[in-house]
Amino acid sequence: MALADFIPVEGQQRIAQAITEAERHTSGEICVHVTPHCRGDVVQRAAHTFNRLGLYATRRRNAVLVFVAYKDRRVAIVGDAAINEAVPEGFWNDEVVLLAQRLKAGRPIDGLCETVMRLGEQLAAFFPADRTNPNELSNEVTYDDNHDESDDSL
Length: 154
Prior knowledge:
Blueprint: H1 3-6, H2 9-23, E1 29-35, H3 42-52, E2 63-69, E3 74-79, H4 81-86, H5 93-104, H6 108-126, E4 142-143, H7 149-152
Parallel strand pairs: 1-2, 1-4
Antiparallel strand pairs: 2-3
Helix pairs in contact: 2-6, 5-6
């Protein structure tokens, strides 16, 4: 199954635009990754995916991954080291609940765009944009089809 089966190309473009807009206000980097299924603990799987995609390679270690297992309607949001040091435990809980509700309602694109914008607002409080504010990570949605052996082991 292809990513376009869950999020059409136009929806992927909307999400990428939302990431671009959200990152204008923060030096944080926001990434969205989708996969059909998630075996085991969704937060562990998201953290594994974060590392596998190399999202730790930002200058300030302030990337965030929004992870969606869409057929299972499971979501997680994980941040890099600097974010985890700066924000209180449970910081992403409201966004996880909001996104899960939108997925359940059949509105994944709206939910992802809304979540991304809220993440940008929250990150700006801890990691405001600086003068250069480089875009260190791609804003494109990434995808696994669950045939990647490194992910299936989780």
